[in-house]
Amino acid sequence: MTRRVVRTAIQLGVLCMITVLLLIFVDNRYRVLPSSIHNHLPAHHPGLVIVDVTVKTCNSINPISSCRLDPDKWHRIEKDLYLNKSWLSRAYVHVQRKKEEELDDDDRVVLDMKIGRLDPANGEKGEGNERWEARPAGIWLKRSTKPHMGDSQKAVTAVDVLFGADAVEPRPGWEIKDHPLLLDTSAEIQESRISIRRGNPSDVPKPIPRINKDGKFKIMQAADLHLATGIGLCRDPEPAGWNGGKCDADTRTLDFIGKVLDDEKPDLVVLSGDQVNGDTAPDAQSAVFKFAELFIKRKIPYAAIFGNHDDEGSLNRAALMSLIESLPYSLSEPGPATVDGVGNYYVEILARGTSQHSALTLYLLDTHGYSPDEKNFRGYDWLKKNQIDWFKETAQGLKHAHKQYTHVHMDLAFIHIPLPEYRNTNNYIVGSFKEPPTAPGFNSGFKDALVEEGVLLVSCGHDHVNDYCSLDKSPEGAPQLWMCYGGGAGFGGYGGYDGYHRRVRFFEIDMNEARVTTYKRLEYGDTEKRLDEQIIVDAGKVVGGP
């Protein structure tokens, strides 16, 4: 009796499974199930699909001219294809989006897009019978031939606009189209490019940085990339006549960063501000994607903070951080909303092996932009009290957690604008001190907080042609904190002091000896040399000096 019941139950279970699988198969093709069930099937990914795309152009002088289609039917991508630089014209991409369960017999989802003046079906093998439809600005859509084809894994589910002949698309699942949308752009107007995503957004898990098996870990600090929308304009390139005098700022900057990434193979990159050159980045997203692609394609984690120029383009700090945070291999975070600034956070580097204990903590803080009290404190802003309080509370909490570890733990910090103590010329200095540090006029006491909490070094950017490390000592003369500059890396920012060559800084950590060695690499000249190599931490303590 028992065997018969078990056998019958197994047979019914198999029959139910076959029935469910058959229903899923049929539903994927013909949508036979109600939406309440369809949306929860394991083979279905609910979301929006694109059913149409067009470009609306208008006259920017005519006050009654509108560049907006019916908002009940069309979603406008809020990027003028002329980047607001044309006196006469504006143009915007519009998309029609629908939930899959709302598709009707007249809807044909978009399966592909091409940009060009010729019908893609002409002369292309195997595409003569495809349904390509023309839209303004040279857009061609391949649309489904059957209604209800709402499989979001095949359909185009998102459309974006990027700018510049050098535009790249680092987001997984996205594809940038080769040809520009508009042909009537001038040299001042960067060409616009369509980017599309098929399927649902990919999950982007945060990487977990860890000390390598040999006990070592290498950090590259890239300061002041100053990337633009498009290839950018070189400022003070050295040598001036190199490459026949031709210098495309972003191309040369990205080539330099790519080369040192391949040479040095860092485990983590810290971007210490002014990645985006706001004045020349009317589409900051396109600039962000260029530096992000460098790290993503090499699978290198990176953490970013902002300088005084990043948010002078099309995106504010919060939007920039949200964008960077969403990208693969990014460790960047906005930090607590109750603390001034965007980008006050820390990154833990785990010990080697499978340990869940931290070996290094990197503190990253937002030094803001320009002075809020120019009358009394000219120049640049400073770290606020609630930021310093947050840092101290966080550091003390982490130190308490780290007490259980048997290995040495070290703390480092990164900011953009230098601290007032960087001006101290009586300190022991290694490297180039070529311009007066443009530290804030008001000293909020962050250097003292770093020392109190046992941070071993802090490194900044901002002053492009300073690349020195300065040793701060206690009143008794004991080394207590190294204050370093990264050195400007980007050709979109200034560099015209005494034949200055762009550079980046490295911190090579050896946890076997609790040692930190730092050095720089040049973009031009003796590019293979480790410049000003020095040990700044040994046995977990600040060392150096005469």
Automatic annotation (TrEMBL):
GO terms for molecular function: phosphoprotein phosphatase activity. The keyword 4Fe-4S does not apply. GO terms for cellular component: cytoplasm. Keywords: Membrane, Transmembrane, Transmembrane helix. The chain crosses the membrane at residues 9-26. InterPro entries: Calcineurin-like_PHP, Metallo-depent_PP-like. Residues 217-465 form the Calcineurin-like phosphoesterase domain. The keyword Transmembrane applies. It holds the Pfam family Metallophos. PANTHER family: PHOSPHATASE DCR2-RELATED, PHOSPHATASE DCR2-RELATED-RELATED. This is Metallo-dependent phosphatase.
